[in-house]
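Today's session is about reading a structure prediction critically. Students often jump straight to the picture, but the first step is always the sequence itself: look for stretches that repeat, for charged clusters, for runs of hydrophobic residues. Only then move on to the predicted structure, which in these notes is written as discrete structure tokens rather than atom positions. Here is the chain we will use throughout the hour.
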Amino acid sequence: MMRRQSNRLLERPVSDPRLWPLDPKLAFLNHGSFGSCPWPVLDFQRQVRDRLERQPIQFLVRELERLLDEARGALSAFLGADAADLVFVPNATAGVNTVLRSLRFKRGDELLVTNHEYNACRNALDYVAQRSGARMVVAELPFPLDGAKQVVDAVLSRVTERTRLALLDHVTSQTGLRLPMDRLVSGLAGRGVDTLVDGAHAPGMVPLNLRRLSAAYYAGNCHKWLCAPKGAGFLYVRRDRQKLIRPLSISHGANSLRTDRSRFLIEFGWTGTWDPSACLSVPQALRFVGTLLPGGWPAIMERNRQLALAAREILCNALKIDPPCPEEMIGSLASMPLPDAPTKTPPASPLYLDPLQDHLLAGYGIEVPIIPWPASPKRLLRVSAQVYNSLPQYGSLAEALRKIRSWR
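Below is the predicted structure for this chain, in token form.
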């Protein structure tokens, strides 16, 4: 395996660790699950909450719509979308559920998904399939795999005249693969199939232009790689599909007499009393993280990608395995197969807690997920790369794995 050249940007964090609430004694290598939100963004959120509580009616009734419009404008510009096509939701899972619960399927329809789909969203797809009598069709993607063509061929080969929708991860949660979404969306559209993109990990990890991608639906998180507070996600719906999509909570907008904006924005603009501070803090997160390197967000994404690739090389060497996918399929996540777990037991949490994960935390101060995939006892080690991470942390993980014998 060729050794990657040293890069000074990888040897140390590009952001002062004191700007993040993370425990300084911890090597936190799991930004992909729940990343930390920097203090300047949390301080901004606190100010928003204080403003709300000083005069709730003024804030929620008179000011909130304008503030949300401004926040959507900043986010949509970053995502390459029109603000009129994007609404805030709590997270990507809520966005996926919103689309699936809005669309109507019938017996005999086929709903396409891959075996790498995030479990929560696959459960939502399974629910609507069972409710309607539709059939879920699974495209099997290998892992390890040779390249993006395998992904495109596997997905498109499962399309039939009965396929009504494809649910696809932009970046797969468990295996950390950046799927060739442009080719998938266009290939499916050419066969008359809409795509619902589960983009939980993509914003802030990979460059996005939703207008050019032209997927029918795209759900994403702002609390992951954008580093906004938890509770900020978005749903993009292409203009010609917006009349089909209703919020999970039907509220005042359903019978509003307003004509100054689309029904889509009116219904999603108010779905009940909520804390909008996380969504209103998204522009602050975009501004803050974008200042951490001179090249702004493109430089941040590339630095994190290079760190993930360098980390993968170190860990594959320690595990004595080949990289499980080509470099072009890596963003800021990298997963590697581990030997099977000693026993076949269900995870202690739906978000995983393998004994090895606990051992690495308690014995070495390293927080990194051990993911049962495709099912226990098979499992993966997944590392994340964010601006507060540095190459020596992955070296410490590699050394810890060499010392631990129980998992072999």
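Discussion point for the tutorial: The chain has a mean pLDDT of 95.
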